[in-house]
Amino acid sequence: MRSHLRNVLPLAAVFVATCAAPAAHASQSPRELVSLINAYRAAPGTCAGRPAAPVAPLDAAPALSGIRIGAGMFLEPALEQAGYPADHAEAMSITNVSDASDAMRTLREHYCTQLLSTDVSAIGAVRSAAGWDIVLARPHPERRLPAPGDVADEVLAAVNAARAQPRNCGSRHFAAAPPLRLSRQLDAAAVNHSTDMAELRYFSHQAKDGSVVGDRAIQAGYRWRAIGENIASGQESARAAVDGWLDSPGHCENIMNAAFTEMGIGYAVNPERGRVYWTQVLASAR
User: Which part of the chain is the SCP domain (predicted)?
Assistant: First the structure.
């Protein structure tokens, strides 16, 4: 009798199969199972009764081989704990199958679609007490974010181009506003908040220590008369962050606010998830 439990996660799925297969004690090497999976990807023949095309082999990833799969587990935190940032992953756990060849037959019968997926490029396999745990993943691509100074220039140009034209922010109409200039102190306040969000894994205008944008600007040495803040998470470029703010009425209002005369910008990347956090501070000095 087989039972299947599936938890759907963002860009990931956990598959757990319990198979009543006879236990064996030979060919228990995870390396052998990985070789069998790659041999199947190279010449699959069929999948679910239909012809299947060959796909590229999977790279063995030691970090993935340390992940244990359990019913009800969430794969994303397990990947983070293993230090493997991925933008797609899925895992299969097979119990009561100890032999690599038997495990491969079970995987091919029930999970050939996952084994032949082109959405993954790496694999880890490990023997569990009852069988095998297999994790397939695609790592985050290497990010090529520009240098902080280049980001500041790019955001300033995009924001000033937006302020140069009348604009509707939701139901509110704004006339064109004078251009902003960069402030190193506001840059520091923005970078500090982005770094705090990235390292502590939260997304809020209020930091974990209770501080808000006005507090952070003062700590950076900026005495403000008016101040506002835009934050974003997940955008892969400065242009995408600005476009998102302009599409959001509240953020757009901050950008178009003629009371603001200076701006700071900063980003930080969470080292485990690879997620980018953006902060823009807009203000006028006393």
Answer: 157-281
In this structure, are 173 and 125 located in the same domain? Answer: no
Task: Return the closest-CA partner of residue 69 out of 89, 51, 87, 53.
Answer: 89
Residue-wise DSSP of 67-133: PPP-TT--HHHHHHHTT--EEEEEEEEEES--SHHHHHHHHHHHHHHHHT-SS--EEEEEE-SSEEE
Whether this prediction's pTM lies above 0.85 is answered by no
- For 75-111, the pLDDT digits (tens) are 878 887 787 878 889 999 888 887 899 999 999 999 9
Span 214-231, pLDDT tens digits: 999 999 999 999 999 999
Token pair 């969470």 in the structure block, residue:
270
166-213 confidence digits (pLDDT tens) = 999 999 999 999 999 999 999 999 999 999 999 998 999 999 999 999
CA 13 to chain CA mean position, Å: 15
CATH of the domain at 105: 3.40.33.10
Is the CB of residue 112 less than 8 Å from the CB of residue 94?
Answer: no
Name residue 50's amino acid: R
Is there a contact between 254 and 169 (Cβ–Cβ < 8 Å)? no
Backbone CA torsion sign across 215, 218, 224, 228: negative
